[in-house]
Amino acid sequence: MLEIVILAAGKGTRMCSAKPKVLHTLAGKAFVSHVIDRAHELEADGIKVVIGHGAEQVEKQLAEPGIEFVEQTEQLGTGHAVQQVLPRLHAEATVLILYGDVPLIKTNTLKRLITKVSETSMGLLTIELANPAGYGRIVREDGEVTAIVEQKDATKEQMQITEINTGVMAVKGAHLQQWLPALSNENAQGEYYLTDIVAMARSNDVLVETVQAASESEVMGVNNRVQQAELERFYQRGIAHDLMIAGATLLDPARIDCRGVLTTGSDCVIDVNCIFEGEVSLGDNVHIGANCHLKDTSIGDNTQIFSNTYIEESQLGEDCLVGPFARLRPGSVLAQKAKIGNFVETKKAYIGKGSKVNHLTYVGDAELGENVNIGAGAITCNYDGANKHKTIIGDGVFIGSNTALVAPVTLAKGTTIAAGSTITSSSQENQLVVARTKQRNIDGWRRPVKK
Ligand code: UD1
Ligand code: CA
């Protein structure tokens, strides 16, 4: 049985923020949510989050089945924080303690740590740091861990120790029940230190087995916005690396941001400054131009997105061309070989195979058949001020420039709309529809003169 405790009660004073620290984000997701993801990957039998500062806000944002919140009303130390959940922990469980502000901890590391827990041993995650300042130091005698001493309580010699406490540990529930009530706050900070259980383990002949973290970033806690930015870059470099290893070309791996999951087919090329949010999948040979922002979208093989395009919750087929400067809003679906040009906005729109919407157009709540051509400046007037209405455009329809299609309206196959028309009623197949005042040419016109 595995129970996970996530400490998330701290204020995070150095973030200088009205928002509790653990809700600040890395790759668009709250620090503590990254930690919760790891807990899920470990298939924990229970996840208990200790909240304090901004408790209401944290709970509201994180609430989901399987997560229990325990409030620590006063932050009297990490040991005190774990004491709050003690009544809810099972003696026979392995209890893994994580920090809500250490977002990049790796599941594999935690798996290694958990294996160290038994009736006679506990696991402690440590790391060697060239600069151990600020951390609790791991004190060993004849190689065995005997205590953790906090920086503020350390002697001059102990300050020289470079093996530090990451804060992550795994302990039998029964041991926590035995040791936590015995913690005292007689130390430099007047806090109940969780780390003091290590010396208790030692005096109860429970072996403290250490596991070394794979990297410093993995165990780095975020205290301020500089560290947040550092971790973000570290994380993004890792994602860029993985994308390239999987076969994508990134024109500059330092200038891509992935806030979610991006999957790429073979031979995709991504130009600089692109942002991918949520779940984005690119087929084979997809090209994304500079400064594009894609969110929860799938893109078919050989499709090209030109620079400065924003796409949300849309599905693009194969061999499409989109942008530059296009905006595809939720529910845009492009069939094969569709083309969306510059300054075009689509929303809840199906664009049929080979259809073109090349310039300066709004297509919303619309269905376009195959090989439709929409001229520059044409728009669907889908909203009457209260309700939305649909525009249906059949195969091969040609819509002249600067046309207003007042929905609901249906244009049958092969319709041609004269430029500048305002269309309020439906057409029959292959009709030419002209809906504008007739041109008059007046000879000898005199322009007004100034009085
Ligand atoms: C702690 C460790 C230190 C270790 C370091 C690693 C102790 C006594 N010290 O020190 O050995 O090197 O982490 O980063 O454990 N928290 C609560 N309630 C509290 C106090 C803290 O929930 O009353 C939470 C914080 O929100 C944070 C975590 O516990 O997520 C760590 O607290 P923090 O104050 O940062 O501990 P450190 O002093 O850095
Ligand atoms: Ca800390």
Structure description:
This protein is α/β, with parallel strands linked by helices and 451 residues long. It folds into two domains: 2-219, Spore Coat Polysaccharide Biosynthesis Protein SpsA, Chain A (Alpha-Beta Complex), CATH 3.90.550.10; 225-433, UDP N-Acetylglucosamine Acyltransferase, domain 1, CATH 2.160.10.10. It is built from nine helices and 34 strands. Strands 5-4-1-6-10-7-11 form a seven-stranded mixed beta sheet, sandwiched between helices. A hairpin with a 2-residue loop joins strand 2 (25-26) and strand 3 (29-30). The termini are far apart. The model has no long low-confidence stretch (mean pLDDT 97). Bound molecules: uridine-diphosphate-N-acetylglucosamine (UD1) and calcium ion. Uridine-diphosphate-N-acetylglucosamine is lined by residues 7-10, 50, 52, 72, 75-78, 80-81, 99-101, 135-136, 148, 150, 164-167, 193-195, 221.
